[in-house]
Amino acid sequence: MLKIYHNPRCRKSRETLQLIKDHGKDVEVVEYLNEIPSVETLRSVLKKLGLKPVEIVRKGEAVFKEQFKGKDFTDEEWLNILHENPKLIERPIVVEGNKAIIGRPPVNVKELF
Q1: Structural domain tally of the chain?
Q2: Which string of b and e fits 28-42 if b means at least 16 CB within 10 Å?
Q3: Which of these is catalytic: 6, 8, 9, 10?
Q4: Helix/strand/coil (H/E/C) assignment for every residue in 13-45
């Protein structure tokens, strides 16, 4: 079963979820702004993505520009920042087993099918 970290207000996230459904895949939807991932969950997802925390930060968000832009943080600090500010997490992230994909563009998710 696929798991999508989803923001229903995001067009790319909605498109990715629809693509998954169109391919008949079972999917667990986690609205991560309401069900905030723990630091440990974020660490696990990042391992599956093969990325560092800073690589999934949405740098266009106002909170990033106001509080974090131009500052250096460790991976552990970024994990805590992402947990405390889930709006900064790139979306959507789709996980299947030991692999994960960022659904930008949505077609990326087909790598998990």
Answers
A1: 1
A2: ebbebbeebbeeebb
A3: 10
A4: HHHHHHHHHHCCCCEEEEECCCCCCCHHHHHHH
pTM of the model: 0.94
Q: What is the pLDDT averaged over residues 96-101? A: 97
Query: Known catalytic residue: 91?
Result: no
pLDDT of residue 86: 98
The pLDDT tens digits for 4-30 are 999 999 999 999 999 999 999 999 999
Residue 99 DSSP SS3: strand
Neighbours of 96 (CB within 10 A): 19
Structure tokens belonging to residue 29: 């939807």
How far is Cα 37 from Cα 24, in angstroms, rounded to an integer?
A: 26
For residue 54, give its domain range. Answer: 2-112
For residue 59, which amino acid is it?
K
To 5 degrees, how large is the angle CA 62–CA 106–CA 78? 40
User: For the domain that residue 51 is a member of, what is the CATH number?
Assistant: 3.40.30.10
